[in-house]
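Exercise 7.
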Amino acid sequence: MQIIKYILLITIFSLSAGIGLIISKMYENRVLELKEFKNILNIIKTKIKFTYEPLAEIFKQISKDGKTEIEKIFGKMASQLEYTQVREVWENCIQEADISIKQTDKNVIKKLGNLLGQTDVEGQVSEIEVTQKFLDMQIEEAEEEKKKNQKMYKTLGIVFGLVFVIILI
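Solution. The predicted structure, written as tokens, is:
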């Protein structure tokens, strides 16, 4: 009977600590995903400016590895561009993406879809640059939140686990 009790206590502690780690990992993922979006926008800007490739081709090239969730988003965009306008595809894929960025981050990225493929090369490049500047601000904010909250959630998970264990003993 004692063994079952200790197994349950260890399980409760592990689950609580694990939940704290999962929540803290979301802050780290947000920073990484915003930086990845910024890098991808730089690739898109360069290809639009110098190679004049269609957006579907650019998105296919970005998604060719498909390792990260963001690359998968661009793969989905590339496949849907044959049937729908860029703006709709861009907004839908960004909104439906299962990634760690906040809704405000998604809104900044979605605004780019309004002009992507709709204006001349210089208009698209300037809109990408504006979006990159907004992403820089979002990255700074995300890094501050990460510094502030990541350690706190890890610690809270462990502390709550210990509290439950102590109460149940």
